[in-house]
Amino acid sequence: MIDLTQYLRETQGGRYQCPLCDARRGLSLDPDEGDSGLWHCFSCDAGGDGVDLYMILHDADVAEALEAFGIDRGGSKSGSIKRKERQAPIPTAPERSDAEWKERGRAWLLLDDEEVKDYAIMRIEKIRAQIDRKRDAFEHWQAEIDDLLYSALHEERVEIQKIDRLDTPLPEL
User: Fold this and answer.
1) Which of 22, 28, 92, 141 would suit a FRET pair with 48, their CA atoms being 20 to 30 Å apart?
2) Which CA distances in Å does 155 have to 59, 92, 110, 150?
3) What is the DSSP string of 101-135?
4) Residue-wise pLDDT tens for the chain (173 aa)?
């Protein structure tokens, strides 16, 4: 059986970063449950078996994921496997470096109350699109979130420039 933890970013307390919502300590994984393990994200409330998680992490189809776990597709397929084979691949968020995560966290702290509400709504819509496997909607909401965070950082930079100009002594006449 494949070890999914090698593909996840481990965080504190034996939790992992969720590949769907990017929550740093959201995903819990129990690799010993069932044929392929079970996972659940406490931030976005997504979850499933190890086959689902493998498909998310590798942008793989069901056949490839089942093969990775050594699960035989032949003979009578269960209803859940048939449903999985009919679904489109789940879109995934872009990879980010630690510096990018830090900058995004800083941007989030700069948001006012209304922007935090907007961010929460966008994040929920992005997760819904991801769970529903709607790539266009997922990319739209990802771009909206990125724009909101970029805007907060841009406004902070403008304010810093204003302060810098005020602190600069005026030239003598």
Assistant:
1) 141
2) 36, 29, 9, 9
3) HHHHHHHHHH--HHHHHHHHHHHHHHHHHHHTT-H
4) 677 777 788 887 778 888 878 777 778 888 777 777 888 888 777 888 888 888 888 877 777 888 887 776 654 455 555 555 566 666 777 788 888 888 888 888 888 889 888 988 888 888 778 777 788 888 899 999 999 999 988 888 877 776 666 666 656 66
